[in-house]
Specification:
Layout: H1 5-19, H2 21-30, H3 42-162
Helix pairs in contact: 1-2
Amino acid sequence: MSTTEAERLQLIDRARDTMGPEAAMTLANLLPPSGWADVARRQDLDELERRIDLRFEALEARFDARFESLEARFDAQFVAVDAKLASIDERFRQVDERFRQVDERFDAMEASIDLKLDRLRFEVMAAISASASLIIRTVVFALIGTLLAAGTLAVGLAQFLGR
């Protein structure tokens, strides 16, 4: 049964009449404001603390499980990303190998073209040299023939005029 505020004030008035105003106020300050039913005992506080501790332990266990789950998912994702990166690295290695092979083919083609150009240059030079020799020989023989013809004409003219 809880005490009403009116009953509380009546008790304080009686205490003032019996013990004096200071003692009555001290007694009133020692009484709980709404009755003893609302006052917590040490056992009540210990039980409340135990229940709060259990709730926090359960909450902490849930957080730990949640974080472990997240860590496992992140680890799995990182493994998947690492595998994809390794696959990409392998593809780049293959592309690099193909470029190396293409470079080797271009180098071989360049060497072959250089060799063919050198051979062609030699053949052209040989053909020019042969043609030049033939032209020079023809011109020399033509000049000799011309000189002989001119000499013969001069001799014939001289004989013709000298007669």
